[in-house]
Amino acid sequence: LLIMVRNQRKKDVSNGLIGFGLLFIGLSMMSGAVTTYRDSPVFAKAFSVLGAYPLLAILVGAIVTALMQSSSASVGVLQTLAMNGMVTWKSAVFITLGQNIGTCVTALISSVGAHKTAKRAAAIHLIFNVLGAVIFAIIMSVLFFVWQDFAVSHVSSVGISVFHTIFNVSCTLILFPFADFLVKLSGILVKDKKRVAEPIDDRTDKVLALTMRRLDKRILGNAAFAIEEAAVEVIHMGQVTYDNMRLSFEAVLENDEEKAKLVSETEKTIDKMAHYISDYLVKVNSADLSEEQSNMITNLFYSVGDIERMGDHAEDLAEIAMYKIRHDMRFSKAAYEELHGLMEMVTNSCQYCLQARELHSRDFANKAMEYENMVDEAERQLRKKHMKRLSLEQCKPMSGVTFLNILTNLERIADHADNVAGYVLQEMG
Q: What is the mean pLDDT of the chain?
């Protein structure tokens, strides 16, 4: 009945319970099937040989686990045999060590075609388990040599579980101090490829690489995780846009040509991020989603659009800065102070809307909206004051039009920040 509910959390719980149930049913079936062969000399001979040749036992454990791609399943099979009194301690220990090596195959397969960081993580996993297996193989060989009766005695399924737990905990305690060494060793095994020069600059390359790495197609099967990663990347895009917006403000106030050019270049990166994220959200949306997840996807999609528009207005401000530079245009001190004050309000509105999106905070969303209202009121007042200066001929018409264009772009950036905050409030009800 649980699988028929609409609540996604209850569905996840029910799927987990069903999985555990099927696992134990399978183990029970295997145990019943093996009971017939409990006294067969073939099994006794096989485990006797594995006990006599530790390397062979480790190899068998690794191969079986690699083929099954699940250490839990292979350990379960070994425990089933142990429940029927067919496995000795000596063979069980070395097969278990092999199983811990074989379980690395899943991570190694997943790292194929992935970023170098993923490959190094898989390499660390393999190195960790291999070193642990070597250490325990030496220790257990000595113990079995000293207590030979214990070595040939039959192990229980609980004994295998206890040894497996001791192995993992002990390896973590032993190898944790050598974490930096494992990282360096993985760097030696997985070397950096020589990069071919690309037309985009290094900063843009890193930003887009991070976006594409997070939006991995292989996690599309897990809708909840895919949505979470997409949300993180929307925030990342928002932060890049926020920084670019601040840079455009500086370009306008300082008449800085280099900053204006950098804003335009970064805007290209923001557009590409918007394309990647939007495409990814469309793919996630094609999965079987709950109503809550579908709503989240829609709001993230709209947020991407609003953030991208904020970036467009930042680029417009950069173009205004270039226009000012070409015409050697300067505003009065009072005008610069007015713009600086308005830009601070816009900055706060954008900052709070991104924090609301990241932390799912009602308070930050409300603050973003409060600052947007302040921006609207300030923009109206500044427009009136500037029109009065124009009527009194205290300002040149060309400068006046440019000033009003700046006000328009600032007000629209705050509008889009208000939209992003609104999506968060809508999700919260």
A: 82
